[in-house]
């Protein structure tokens, strides 16, 4: 039986094509120069697209499908969705069930084209956009969330907020017993700041090793596991470092970091999260210059002759980057001397065991 994707009012959905028809794909192109994400059902050949739905098996029954974030440039914390579920839920993509597995990432919000039908959540989180209504248990099977703050926002018991699935990586055979062979601390920026500076050059001056968040997921994971220390602006750099018992330091280069996501995961492990801002003076300046909110029902008038907001923002960013350049290596070097963080090993082990129990339950209930 062939497959086709047909446009729908909501997400794109997979439906059986007429017998003998050639498979076809409806794609939504993305701006390769932007940070606009794609969401992809488990079809690596599709590329970065908005895609979701239910995939028929050879006998016409629907099988479990996977829905996750995929960026055109790559982002290791999301790209691991392409293979981690094969290890956590062996055989998941052959299970005959009309449901969609919602993958690792901050993808529980109404702004994304979440698939219609039953959604199985085993570690995703909130943090962007509006919170979806998950009260319909026929549509939502919430087995685990990234952390207790996601559970609170969704209005479900806090104990469902177990941990991020990436914390299970050290238990996978391919990542077992990775030696601590690195000698230089690593710096892993957030995806949004991956092109903010010439990071390889900056890190050489700071005595650090640069690891791009756009790198191949397995390679990035191994780099983190081998390192003596990780400076993490990327949340999954910290998550994976903690899982492999690599000390880490949370750093913030800009104000683009979503601290709610960090707090959600940190709360799952009882971590007292502390960010080391590299440029706190800019944060103070931004707060001081923040305009007073306009009264309800009114809109603030633009100053006469003021440039369009987009142009003004670009000009501000250019000025800030110019100010950061001579300081960034020195600030990173100083951040690397801060006291690193690691979760309590007993708490980590308990969270991993609780999450494994969830996986066992999913396998029991969905494999059939």
Q: What does it look like?
A:
Keywords: Plasmid. This is Succinoglycan biosynthesis protein exov. Residues 1-21 are annotated as: Disordered. InterPro entries: Polysacch_pyruvyl_Trfase (IPR007345). This protein has 368 residues and is an alpha/beta fold. It folds into two domains: 3-165, no CATH class; 171-288 and 321-346, Rossmann fold. It contains eleven helices and 14 strands. It has helices at residues 76-79, 81-88, 148-154, 199-206, 217-226, 235-243, 259-268, 280-288, 309-324, 328-335, 345-366; strands at residues 3-6, 13-16, 38-41, 55-56, 62-63, 65-70, 99-102, 118-122, 140-144, 186-188, 209-210, 230-232, 248-252, 275-277. The strands form four sheets. It has a five-stranded mixed beta sheet. Strands 11-10-12-13-14 form a five-stranded parallel beta sheet. Strand 13, helix 7 and strand 14 form a beta-alpha-beta unit. Helix 4 crosses helix 10 (328-335). It is globular. The two termini are 23 Å apart.
């Amino acid at each position: 039986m062939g497959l086709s994707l047909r446009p729908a009012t909501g997400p794109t959905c997979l439906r059986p094509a007429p017998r003998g028809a050639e498979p076809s794909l409806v794609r939504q192109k993305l701006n390769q120069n932007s940070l606009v994400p794609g969401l992809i059902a488990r079809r690596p050949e599709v590329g970065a697209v908005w895609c979701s739905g239910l995939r028929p098996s050879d006998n016409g029954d629907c099988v479990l499908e996977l829905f996750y974030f995929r960026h055109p440039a790559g982002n290791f914390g999301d790209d691991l969705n392409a293979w981690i579920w094969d290890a956590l839920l062996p055989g998941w993509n052959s299970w005959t069930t009309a449901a969609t597995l919602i993958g690792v990432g901050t993808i529980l919000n109404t702004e994304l084209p979440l698939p219609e039908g039953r959604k199985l959540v085993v570690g995703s989180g909130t943090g962007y956009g509006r919170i979806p209504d998950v009260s319909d248990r026929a549509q939502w099977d919430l087995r685990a969330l990234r952390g207790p703050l996601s559970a609170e926002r969704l209005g479900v018991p806090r104990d469902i907020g177990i941990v991020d699935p990436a914390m299970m990586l050290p238990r996978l055979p391919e990542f077992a017993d990775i030696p601590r062979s690195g000698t230089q601390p690593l710096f892993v920026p957030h995806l949004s700041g991956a092109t903010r500076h010439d990071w390889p050059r900056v890190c050489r001056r700071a005595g650090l090793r640069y690891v791009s968040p756009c790198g191949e997921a397995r390679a990035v994971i191994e780099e983190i596991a081998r390192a003596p220390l990780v400076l993490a602006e990327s949340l999954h750099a910290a998550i994976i470092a903690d899982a492999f018992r690599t000390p880490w330091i949370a750093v913030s280069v800009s104000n683009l970091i979503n601290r709610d996501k960090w707090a959600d995961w940190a709360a799952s492990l009882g971590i007292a999260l502390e960010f080391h801002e590299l440029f706190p003076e800019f944060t103070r300046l931004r707060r001081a210059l923040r305009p007073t909110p306009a009264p309800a029902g009114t809109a603030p008038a633009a100053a006469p002759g003021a440039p369009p907001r987009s142009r003004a923002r670009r000009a501000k960013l250019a000025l800030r980057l110019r100010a950061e350049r001579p300081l960034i290596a020195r600030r990173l070097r100083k951040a690397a001397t801060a006291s690193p963080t690691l979760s309590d090993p007993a708490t980590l082990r308990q969270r991993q065991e609780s999450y494994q129990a969830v996986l066992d339950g999913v396998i029991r209930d969905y494999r059939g």
